[in-house]
Amino acid sequence: MFLLNILLAIAWAALMGNFEPQQLLFGFVLGYLILWLVSRMGRPSRYFKQLPLGIELLLFFLFDVLRANVRMAVTILSPRMRLRPAVVAVPLILKSEAAMILLANMLTLTPGTLSLDVSTDRQMLYVHTVWLDDAEEFRRQVLEGYEKRLKELFES
Questions:
Q1: Which of 23, 24, 32, 43 has minimal CB crowding within 10 Å?
Q2: pTM for the complete prediction?
Q3: What is the pLDDT of residues 48-64, one digit of tens each?
Q4: How far is it between the farthest Cα atoms of the chain?
């Protein structure tokens, strides 16, 4: 469905004779609505649940990266750097390998955190952070912020 949506966006831009990003985005949204209307006549597709979840995850991730960048800048520019580095074992609720990889990569791309390893039984993700105030709070933020969204996106 995603490829069909992309094809509809390209077709829209070709019909308009304009391949600028906003035209492609409009074509993608229009294609999504057309596919959604057509799919209501047949069996429902997971695509219409997954795309909004993926967009929500992306927006959450971008906001988290922005927040971490600001915190890192404040830490670096302050006269007394208040770093509290630690390695935290984060329990994984994810079963999908793709979801685990995406979680590890998202945490690594967020300033101040680095995914180190996954346990051999795939139950723990070891994450280095430069600001550890409370290990349980850090685990909760990863679980509620990333893992639940990834589980819903990949395993529902």
A1: 43
A2: 0.78
A3: 888 899 999 999 999 99
A4: 63
Cβ neighbourhood burial of 24 (10 Å; 0-12, 13-18, 19+): middle
In tens, the pLDDT along 25-34 reads 999 999 988 8
Q: Give the Å distances, CA to CA, from 89 to 98, 125, 126.
A: 19, 6, 5
Q: Which two tokens stand for residue 48?
A: 């219409």
Q: Which two tokens stand for residue 123?
A: 């139950």
Please enumerate in sequence order all residues whose Cβ is within 8 A of that of 53, keeping only pairs 6 or more positions apart, or say none.
149, 152, 153
Interior angle at CA 23, CA 22 and CA 24, nearest 5: 90
- pLDDT (tens digit per residue) in 134-156: 999 999 999 999 999 999 999 87
Q: Which residue has the tokens 């409370």?
A: 134
Residue pair 124/70 in contact (Cβ under 8 Å)? The answer is no
Say if residues 45 and 145 touch (Cβ distance below 8 Å): no
Q: Which residues pair with 86 in a beta bridge?
A: 129
Q: Determine the 3-state secondary structure of 116 from DSSP.
A: strand
